[in-house]
Write a structure and sequence with these properties.
With about 260 residues, the chain is α/β, with parallel strands linked by helices. It has eight helices and ten strands. Strands 1-10-9-6-2-3-5 form a seven-stranded parallel sheet, covered by helices on one side. A three-stranded antiparallel sheet has the order 4-8-7. Bound molecules: 2-amino-2-deoxy-6-O-phosphono-alpha-D-glucopyranose. 2-amino-2-deoxy-6-O-phosphono-alpha-D-glucopyranose (GLP) binds next to loops.
């Protein structure tokens, strides 16, 4: 795994944005369409602001880019103010030249009997696009990636899941009250994420330090689904110093032991 530690989330996000721009340009030269997996939450906001700036000021075009979002709250229609569909449009898609038909977000407002079909179609759409070139990730305090909560297996696929109480408590900031936070969500699986050709995970702030330490220094286990990334051949971590604190301390300790 590549660790990139920056002083601020902005610096880290700008670095990742440059990586995305170079992926888009490499694909253009090769006559291919880049397929990018996208995340929601507060973490990627600075990245999305920078991509919008690069589009406006540097002419970075998203006309050929295909995107797949990780997840959506179950029960929320696309126009619900807290839907991830809406979040992605407000923070990114509405400000780019991306084509609407190239945007994919799991549908949250489906009938229970249609869930399995929706999830299978989402997986099929990813496969039809040629798989994901770069998957952007945040990390939840439970160690979730997408909404793959503790207990998720490494081979899980797109499915309907129950949200962890910690995740729901964290979402109160968005929904105003716990009773308004959906209990379930659709998420791509850990297996789906691990099939991406490369993965970039971002985490900011001391509130993420413990989970980042567990995920990347601890054992690979479904108790901390982000730890599955340790077994992926191309993962880059973009961290600010507070989020990297335990990781840095743990690495020093390991180094120390290996010298003893
Ligand atoms: C959210 C998303 C995740 C995200 C995580 C962290 O609920 N489903 O994809 O990475 O939880 O959120 P934040 O970036 O706001 O800390």
């Amino acid at each position: 795994m590549d660790f990139h530690i920056f002083q601020t989330p902005e610096e880290a996000s700008h670095s990742l944005a440059r990586g995305i721009a170079s992926l888009i340009k490499r694909c253009e030269v090769a006559g291919k369409r880049p397929v990018i997996g996208l995340a929601t939450g507060r973490t990627p906001l600075a990245l999305y602001r920078e991509l919008v700036r690069m589009h406006r000021e540097e002419g970075l075009s998203f006309r050929n880019v295909i995107t797949f979002n990780l997840d959506e709250y179950h029960g929320l229609g696309r126009n619900h103010p807290k839907s991830y569909w809406r979040f992605m449009h407000e923070n990114l898609f509405d400000h780019l030249d991306i084509l609407p038909e190239n945007i994919h977000v799991p549908r949250g407002d489906i009938e229970p009997e249609d869930t399995v079909r929706e999830c299978q179609e989402y997986e099929a759409a990813i496969a039809d696009a040629g798989g994901i070139d770069l998957q952007i990730l945040g990390i939840g305090r439970t160690g979730h990636i997408g909404f793959n909560e503790p207990g998720s297996g490494a081979h899980t696929r797109t499915r309907l899941v129950e949200l962890d109480p910690v995740t729901r408590a964290d979402a109160v900031a968005d929904f105003g009250h716990l009773s308004a936070v959906p209990e379930m969500a659709l998420t791509v699986g850990c297996g789906t994420i691990l099939e991406a050709r490369s993965i970039a995970l971002m985490a900011w702030g001391s509130g993420k330090a413990t989970v980042v330490g567990k995920a990347f220094l601890g054992p690979v286990s479904g108790d901390v689904p982000a730890s599955f990334l340790q077994d992926h051949p191309s993962v880059s971590l973009y961290l600010d110093e507070p989020a990297a604190e335990l990781l840095a301390a743990g690495c020093e300790e390991k180094h120390h032991h290996s010298k003893d």
